[in-house]
């Protein structure tokens, strides 16, 4: 029977490649049916963490438990209990849809009637009914991703690892893909997803922000937004942007300034005084200011700030 | 324009230096081939393992056997005692030649009734067997003649001086000791240069196509002609250097003579390189990945090599294949190589080969350049 | 190790080979091409040697000798010249490979004193052809000399002794017609197997790494052994089919004698394939790029087999040091097995040493191959 404890637990996980530390003392746990998102820029270490959890890389230090099994000791058994979609190519492009399904079914020991049933489901899922004989490489990315998901769950794994499953897919298809993930989570599957699309982060139950191998923040999206950001966030539209940035960065009560599109996001200690003071400051310097208002921070804001904070900490140490 | 070409050439040399795969494929096989063709490859028969069954045990039979043993070519492994052993030995492949002298051999000799020497040859390697048979016949002839002379001198000594005989004096030209190395090493100059240049040229283009930088380059002011020049001139230079290097190794290390003119060799090499550049360019228009280029190289060059006369004489091939060799540039280059190394002949003799290579080279280059330009648009 | 995973891997590999036109071409067309190329192109049977004759005397006797050269199928008397310079030009230009120079006092010396010499100028560039040509020329001249001698002896009243004292009765075993194709063509089977290993099986693992599908594959429960066996199975079948193809062409098209049993051939070919495919696999595992893998494979499988395998250059005539090296060239054992099966009709007991060597090799390669592949990314 399934463990009552956490589905996946990671303790002080470290991965070094020579001198380079890809994963730096990361710890977290995920419960059954949870959608855990790894958020971070490219090269942050998200894929490395997922690969360690799948037994594809050996941890340098620390421990990881998947479905109650120690990944370092029992990698092969773990593989039977998980589904994995790798970042680059999860399917064989020169095989047809049905050949891919049959192959992965074979890998997980799904045969006969069960394979037929699961294949039907996967084909429906991917919207490929009638195209089963088509060569996979000729499918569009959106269909390929859904098919890959179908292949990954032919054996009903309790835990699913998806490494950047929606990269290169159009926004509407991405949303549909996430609906599928939610369905699975609702049926009790623990899903780990890594992504660098900030908007997708909102779909996860919990988020782990990864930057330079470190776990920068951990919590539900709401928690992160509420607690992570110190102070308030202002949207300031002004021109020219570059000069305004410099001016505001020096201004009192301003914690951080960053460019967002053709406006500035300004983190301030207190919102009300700032709304008053800043436009006057800008006009005094001969810069126009067309708009200023308080906004709710997005995860991107949180992220940028957390990264900045981490950098500041790193500098303080050195 | 020259400036752009110059930059392309420099880039090619830089990339050549850094390409690990190229280094491996261009250094290791040539080294191995030089070693093998210089030291191991030969069709010569130096020692034939022999067994002897002498059932006569007379002075004459022992004399005959000792001539074989003393020839330096036949290594008498064992003296057997019955026919069964002899058959088994050849069957097992433990010896290549078996000599069987029956009882009564000397008797027949004395009576002048033609004594038989039975020889069994393992014909598996027909070339070795043929050459061994030649040696056997030589030894047998000499024995017969000596015996004849000896007998005559005892009966009618006066006549001995008058016994007629025609002898053959062999005079090998260019390679007096008939040294296999002298045959193969000059050939290696040609075969290795071919492999290296075709390889480099084909890969240079295909690699860019594979990575995507070819597209990038075409967006620059670079003209197609300049691109082609940039992709062929560096390898022309490399080809010349390679040929020179192997020639030096052949002459200094392997002591193969060089009787002819360096200029003639230079001309021949240059013309040959033109064809090879053309082939390399042609292959590059057919392949989109380096992997494909590798396999294509092999399939183009394997027949070019086998049918060139490098190891196996063209005259032994069936007529239709001999006709085919007329479009193999290596065939002509080998004649030029062996002509300049061993024969010491010049343009007076070699002009047909030079002309042929010039024509082939021009044709190949034209076809490949046209195809290449098309593939760029 | 479970059979269904292995079969799944094998089936996928087979589909991928089937869908890749270049692999198919290598698998089906290459053996035929090699057989044609080598079967026709590689021959050491020297015939119709172009000869130029320089008869300085032009007597009845000298003409009689020249007629013998003309009558021989080994020689093709192209030119009759009358200056030494013409001889030199002919040989220099390569128009004649052999020049027979008969001295101006040929018949005189035959009648009056004990012998005369005919010069055979031979183009020594190709030493092997030269050797063979000299051998043939020697035979012609010896024959003529013998006849002259016996004739003379009869005229001297020594009729009783006017026979050739020594007769060589030679019999050639296994390759009665002394055709080079009989020993070269069986070796082509070894060549083709080696090529399959070099060009096909050496790509299998490297290709998955390059395409990125390897990661997905090793995240599944499939084991390293299952991957290896599954992936090599299709190449094994291809190898057997190609071997059958080559043997068929050899026997029915090139009329090479086949005196052995198909069972022995099948068994030994299986062993050799195991070695070749295993080596290709190991190379594929260790080199994660397709290009690197095929390069190394070509050098490690094809080059030694062609040069040192004993099917072109005879091993027993190589210098001792090189002969030692050939013991580790696994192609050598298979080539000698092939020759023995085709020409001698050898059975497994006669082939025991070579078979044992191959079996040892196969075992070693199997062990190395299973150890080499790890189901991790680093």
- Reading the helices and strands of chain C in chain order gives HHEHEHEHEHEHHHHHHHHH
Shape of chain C: elongated
What's the oligomerization state? heterotrimer
In whole angstroms, how far apart are the ends of chain C? 24 Å
Question: Helical segment tally of chain C?
Answer: 15
Helical proportion of chain C? 55-70%
- What is the distance, rounded to the nearest whole angstrom, between the alpha carbons of the first and last residues of chain A? 50 Å
Largest β-sheet summary of chain C = 4 strands, mixed
Percent of residues of chain A in beta strands? 25-35%
Helical content of chain A stands at 25-40%
Main beta sheet strand tally, sense and closure of chain A: 6 strands, mixed
C-alpha geometry of chain A? elongated
Derived structural class of chain C: alpha/beta
How many domains make up the coordinates of chain C? 2
Low-pLDDT ranges of chain C: none
Q: Trace the largest sheet of chain A across and list its strands.
A: 6-7-8-3-9-10
Contiguous helical run count of chain A? 11
**Which class of secondary structure composition applies to the elements of chain A?**
alpha/beta
Largest sheet of chain C, order of strands side by side?
Answer: 2-1-3-4
Rounded radius of gyration of chain A (Å): 23 Å
Question: Brief description of this entry?
Answer:
The complex is a heterotrimer of chains A (318), B (377) and C (378). By secondary structure, chain A is of the alpha/beta class.
Please explain how this structure is put together.
The complex is a heterotrimer of chains A (318), B (377) and C (378). Chain A has 318 residues and is of the alpha/beta class. Chain A is 39% helix and 28% strand. In chain A, helix 4 runs antiparallel to helix 5. A four-stranded mixed beta sheet of chain B has the order 2-1-3-4, sandwiched between helices. The two termini of chain B are 20 Å apart. Chain B folds into two domains: 238 residues, no CATH class; 113 residues, abc type-2 transporter like domain (abc type-2 transporter like fold, 3-Layer(aba) Sandwich). In chain B, helix 8 runs parallel beside helix 11. Chain B is of the alpha/beta class. Chain C is an alpha/beta fold and 378 residues long. Chain C folds into two domains: 235 residues, no CATH class; 107 residues, abc type-2 transporter like fold. In chain C, helix 7 runs antiparallel to helix 14. The radius of gyration of chain C is 29 Å and the shape is elongated. Classes of the chains: A alpha/beta (318), B alpha/beta (377), C alpha/beta (378). Chains in contact: A-C, B-C.
């Amino acid at each position: 029977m399934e463990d009552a404890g956490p589905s996946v637990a990671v303790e002080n996980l470290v991965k070094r490649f020579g001198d380079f530390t890809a994963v730096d003392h990361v710890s977290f746990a995920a419960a059954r049916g949870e959608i855990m998102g790894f958020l971070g820029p490219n090269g942050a270490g998200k894929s490395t963490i997922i690969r360690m959890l799948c037994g594809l890389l050996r941890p340098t230090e620390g421990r990881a438990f998947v479905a109650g099994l120690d990944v370092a000791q029992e990698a092969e058994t773990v593989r039977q209990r998980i589904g994995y979609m790798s970042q680059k190519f999860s399917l064989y492009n020169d095989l047809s849809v049905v050949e891919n399904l049959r192959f992965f079914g074979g890998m997980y020991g799904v045969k006969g009637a069960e394979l037929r049933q699961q294949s039907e489901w996967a084909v429906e899922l991917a919207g490929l009914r009638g195209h089963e004989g088509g060569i996979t490489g000729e499918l569009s990315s959106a269909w390929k991703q859904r098919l890959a998901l179908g292949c990954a769950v032919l054996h009903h794994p309790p835990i699913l690892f998806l490494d950047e499953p929606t990269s290169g897919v159009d926004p509407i298809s991405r949303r549909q893909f996430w609906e599928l993930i939610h369905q699975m989570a609702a049926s009790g599957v623990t899903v780990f997803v890594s992504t660098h699309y900030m908007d997708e982060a909102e779909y996860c139950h919990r988020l782990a922000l990864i930057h330079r191998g470190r776990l920068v923040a951990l919590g539900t999206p709401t928690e992160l937004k509420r607690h992570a950001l110190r102070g308030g966030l202002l949207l300031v539209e002004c021109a020219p942007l570059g000069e305004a940035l410099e001016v505001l960065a020096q201004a009192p009560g301003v914690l951080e300034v960053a460019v967002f599109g053709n406006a500035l996001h300004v983190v301030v200690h207190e919102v009300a005084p700032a709304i008053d003071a800043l436009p006057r400051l800008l006009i005094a310097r001969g810069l126009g200011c067309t708009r200023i208002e308080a906004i709710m921070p997005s995860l991107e804001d949180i992220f940028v700030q957390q990264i900045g904070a981490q950098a500041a900490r790193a500098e303080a140490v050195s | 324009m020259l400036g752009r070409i110059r930059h392309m050439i420099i880039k090619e040399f830089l990339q050549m230096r850094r390409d690990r795969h190229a280094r491996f494929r261009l250094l290791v096989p040539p080294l191995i081939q030089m070693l093998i063709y210089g030291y191991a490859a030969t069709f010569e028969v130096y020692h034939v393992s022999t067994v002897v069954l002498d059932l006569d045990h007379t002075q004459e039979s022992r004399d005959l056997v000792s001539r074989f043993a003393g020839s330096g070519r036949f290594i008498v492994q064992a003296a057997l005692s019955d026919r069964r052993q002899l058959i088994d030995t050849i069957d097992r492949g433990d010896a290549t030649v078996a000599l069987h002298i029956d009882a009564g051999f000397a008797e027949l000799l004395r009576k002048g009734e033609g004594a038989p020497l039975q020889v069994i040859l393992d014909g598996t390697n027909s070339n070795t067997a043929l050459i061994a048979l030649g040696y056997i016949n030589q030894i047998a002839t000499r024995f017969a003649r000596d015996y004849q002379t000896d007998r005559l001198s005892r009966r009618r000594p006066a006549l001995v001086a008058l016994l007629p005989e025609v002898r053959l004096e062999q005079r090998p030209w260019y390679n007096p000791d008939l040294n296999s190395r002298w045959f193969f090493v000059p050939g290696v100059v040609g075969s290795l240069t071919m492999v290296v240049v075709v390889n480099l040229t084909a890969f240079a283009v295909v690699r860019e196509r594979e990575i995507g930088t070819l597209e990038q380059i075409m967006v620059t002011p670079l003209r197609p002609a300049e691109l082609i020049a940039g992709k062929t001139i560096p390898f022309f230079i490399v080809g010349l250097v390679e040929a020179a290097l192997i020639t030096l190794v052949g002459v200094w290390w392997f002591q193969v003579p060089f009787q002819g003119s360096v200029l003639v060799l230079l001309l021949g090499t240059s013309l040959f390189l033109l064809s090879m550049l053309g082939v390399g360019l042609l292959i590059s228009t057919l392949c989109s990945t380096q992997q494909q280029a590798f396999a294509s190289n092999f399939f183009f060059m394997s027949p070019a090599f086998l049918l060139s006369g490098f190891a196996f004489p063209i005259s032994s091939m069936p007529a239709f294949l001999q006709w085919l060799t007329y479009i193999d540039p290596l065939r002509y280059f080998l004649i030029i190589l062996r002509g300049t190394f061993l024969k010491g002949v010049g343009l007076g003799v070699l002009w047909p080969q030079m002309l042929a290579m010039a024509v082939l080279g021009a044709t190949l280059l034209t076809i490949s350049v046209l195809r290449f330009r098309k593939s760029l648009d | 190790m479970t059979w269904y995973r292995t079969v799944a891997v094998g089936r996928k590999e087979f589909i991928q080979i089937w869908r890749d036109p270049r692999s198919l071409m290598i698998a089906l067309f290459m053996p035929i091409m090699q057989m044609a190329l080598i079967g026709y192109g590689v021959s050491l049977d020297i015939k119709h040697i172009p000869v130029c004759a320089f008869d300085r005397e032009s007597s009845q006797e000298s003409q009689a000798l020249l007629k013998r050269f003309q009558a021989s199928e080994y020689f093709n008397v192209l030119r009759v010249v009358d200056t030494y310079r013409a001889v030199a030009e002919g040989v220099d230009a390569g128009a004649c490979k052999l020049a027979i120079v008969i001295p101006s006092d040929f018949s005189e010396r035959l009648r009056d004193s004990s012998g005369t010499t005919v010069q055979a100028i031979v183009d020594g560039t190709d030493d092997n052809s030269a050797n063979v040509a000299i051998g043939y020329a020697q035979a012609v001249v010896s024959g003529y000399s013998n006849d002259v001698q016996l004739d003379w002896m009869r005229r001297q009243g020594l009729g009783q002794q006017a026979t050739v004292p020594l007769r060589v009765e030679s019999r050639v075993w296994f390759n009665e017609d002394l055709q080079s194709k009989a020993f070269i063509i069986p070796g082509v089977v070894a060549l083709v197997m080696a090529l399959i290993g070099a060009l096909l099986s050496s790509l299998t693992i490297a290709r998955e790494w390059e395409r990125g599908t390897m990661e997905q594959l090793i995240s599944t429960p499939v084991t390293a052994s299952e991957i290896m066996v599954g992936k090599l199975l299709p190449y094994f079948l291809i190898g057997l089919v190609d071997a059958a193809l080559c043997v068929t062409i050899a026997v029915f098209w090139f009329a090479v004698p086949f005196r052995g049993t198909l069972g022995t051939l099948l068994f030994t070919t299986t062993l050799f394939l195991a070695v070749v495919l295993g080596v290709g696999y190991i190379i594929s595992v260790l080199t994660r790029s397709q290009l690197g893998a095929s390069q190394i494979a070509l050098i490690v499988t094809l080059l030694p087999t062609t040069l040192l395998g004993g099917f072109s250059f005879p091993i027993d005539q190589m210098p001792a040091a090189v002969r030692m090296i050939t013991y580790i060239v696994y192609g050598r054992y298979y080539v000698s097995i092939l020759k023995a099966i085709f020409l001698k009709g050898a059975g497994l007991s006669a082939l025991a040493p070579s078979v044992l060597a191959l079996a040892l090799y196969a075992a070693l390669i199997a062990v190395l191959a299973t150890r080499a592949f790890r189901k991790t990314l680093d």
